[in-house]
Amino acid sequence: MGRDLPQRDFTDEDRERFRARLRASLGLLDGLLTSPGFGTGEPTLGAELEMFLVTGDGVPVPGTRRSAVPQPTPAWSWRSTATTWRPT
Fold this sequence. Notes:
Strand content: under 5%
Shape: flat
Radius of gyration: 21 Å
Number of strands: 0
Structural class: mainly alpha
């Protein structure tokens, strides 16, 4: 995800290879969803939050160069939390 494709035109062979990989992945997903015990237990929810480094003008910074990440300071630091959400 988020990658530029080096080509814009695809052959019938490219499309067939893609379809085969997609079918295989969907088969694996089907196996998981239909396996005994899947979906039992306490309901849970997964979520993903994406963050991007940006310039002062709000333009995304290309790449993930280590030098582009500011070092934590008292005024700015990373904090990670984990929360479990349960239905009420």
